[in-house]
């Protein structure tokens, strides 16, 4: 327990002692007042510290944020047991030890059952209020923590995606300039045409680099233009075949993925007129494939693998479907998943997350509503009990609102924690399954 909790218990002890001293004590003197403070402090500190230690223990073993339903059930049972024990102890100390109004045998014979029962009810109400207050505090902390975590995740994903996209410009430009540099020496006229075509291609790069996905049709058209540039340089040494199904044209792929894979084909394989490099782009089982015959070029420096790694990482941020790579002695193939929807990087699986968030938000409202009801019960009922005992102690009418409202609180708790929406969802699924079978 914290320091502020002890200060709160001191104020509760003082307020309770003043109330009982001026309302129920016949002889109002210093000794009577000090004795009332002693008794009130005993009840306040024994019950307060006992429930506080219980609450701290349950928070460590069964946190509200992780096991809400289990924690609620364990809290109810443990609160009931611990408060019965503490109340019997406090009443024993009060009536047997301090006031000496009864012996131990008389106390346990049932003479003080009514006093014990009444005190237990008051203790349970106050304890339930404190545990509900703790739940609301934990819920608030958890909500803030989750909001911060989600913001960090979103920022991290966004930064990662931006970093991956920024690799495209220098990578593409570097390779294009290498091609242009070769053409300037080999064929200046072709170099001029290449420069004009490269400007068109680079415009596409600039237009598409900020997009998460582009249509297969756009990517194929861009790839064909890029292949024309490669044919300009390599002529008969490279051959391109496009065999993509028309129905796949409206699906989506990662932008510039084909361009990066075409670059890899040229970079890692040699191509001559006697041994041309055959590159084929085609559809296969929900994927867009690029395949080339394997003619591995000897390289002094090991490849960094930026192009292929870039594609794999960008796909991992957008979908659970993987990029597949097949390699044999004769060919090398990369399979790119084609996607039916166009998600947003920041909100990965937005629809599912939104639905889950709405359900969680509704669940939190239900739990808050129950604890609001419980807190109101814990505040109003003790007030009615005290009012009844002061105004008409011989006619105990507080039982009716306490029992009636108590049954309502229990039913409310059952609907939130025991049955709730799970029961409704199960029933809905059962009815739908029966209708589908018909």
From TrEMBL:
The chain crosses the membrane at residues 7-24, 30-51, 72-94, 114-132, 370-390, 396-419. Residues 358-432 form the 2TM domain. Residues 159-237 form the Signal transduction histidine kinase internal region domain. Keywords: Membrane, Transmembrane, Transmembrane helix. The keyword Transmembrane helix applies. Pfam families: 2TM, His_kinase. This is 2TM domain-containing protein. The lineage of its organism: Bacteria, Pseudomonadati, Bacteroidota, Flavobacteriia, Flavobacteriales.
């Amino acid at each position: 327990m914290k320091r502020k909790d002890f200060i709160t218990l001191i104020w509760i002890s003082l307020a309770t002692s003043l109330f009982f001293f001026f309302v129920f004590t016949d002889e109002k003197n210093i000794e009577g007042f000090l004795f009332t403070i002693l008794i009130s402090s005993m009840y306040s500190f024994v019950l307060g510290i006992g429930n506080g230690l219980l609450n701290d223990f349950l928070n460590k073993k069964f946190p509200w944020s992780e096991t809400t339903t289990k924690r609620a059930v364990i809290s109810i049972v443990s609160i009931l047991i611990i408060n019965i024990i503490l109340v019997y102890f406090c009443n024993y100390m009060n009536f047997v030890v301090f006031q000496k109004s009864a012996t131990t045998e008389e106390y346990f014979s049932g003479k003080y059952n009514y006093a014990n029962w009444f005190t237990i009810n008051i203790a349970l109400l106050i304890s339930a209020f404190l545990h509900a207050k703790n739940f609301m505090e934990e819920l608030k902390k958890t909500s803030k923590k989750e909001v911060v975590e989600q913001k960090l995740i979103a920022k991290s994903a966004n930064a990662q995606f931006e970093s991956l996209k920024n690799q495209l410009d220098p990578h593409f430009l570097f390779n294009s300039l290498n091609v242009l540099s070769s053409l300037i020496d080999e064929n200046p006229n072709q170099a001029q045409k290449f420069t004009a075509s490269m400007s068109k291609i680079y415009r596409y790069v600039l237009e598409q680099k900020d997009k998460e996905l582009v249509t297969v049709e756009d990517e194929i058209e861009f790839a064909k233009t890029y292949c024309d540039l490669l044919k300009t340089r390599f002529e008969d040494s490279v051959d391109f075949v496009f065999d993509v199904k028309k129905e796949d044209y409206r699906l989506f792929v990662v932008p510039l993925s084909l361009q990066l894979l075409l670059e890899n084909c040229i970079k890692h394989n040699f191509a001559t007129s006697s041994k041309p490099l055959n590159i084929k782009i085609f559809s296969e089982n929900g994927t867009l494939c690029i395949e080339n015959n394997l003619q591995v070029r000897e390289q002094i420096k090991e490849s960094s693998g930026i192009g292929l790694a870039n594609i794999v990482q960008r796909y991992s941020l957008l979908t659970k479907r993987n990029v597949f790579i097949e390699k044999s002695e004769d060919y090398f193939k990369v399979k790119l998943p084609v996607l039916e929807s166009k998600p947003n990087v920041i909100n990965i699986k937005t629809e599912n997350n939104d639905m889950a968030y709405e359900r969680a938000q509704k669940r939190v409202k239900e739990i808050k509503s129950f604890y609001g009801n419980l807190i109101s019960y814990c505040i109003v009922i003790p007030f009615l009990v005290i009012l009844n005992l002061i105004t008409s102690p011989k006619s105990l009418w507080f039982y009716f609102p306490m029992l009636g409202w108590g049954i309502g609180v229990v039913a409310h708790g059952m609907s939130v924690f025991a049955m709730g929406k799970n029961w409704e969802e199960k029933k809905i699924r059962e009815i739908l399954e029966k209708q589908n079978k018909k």
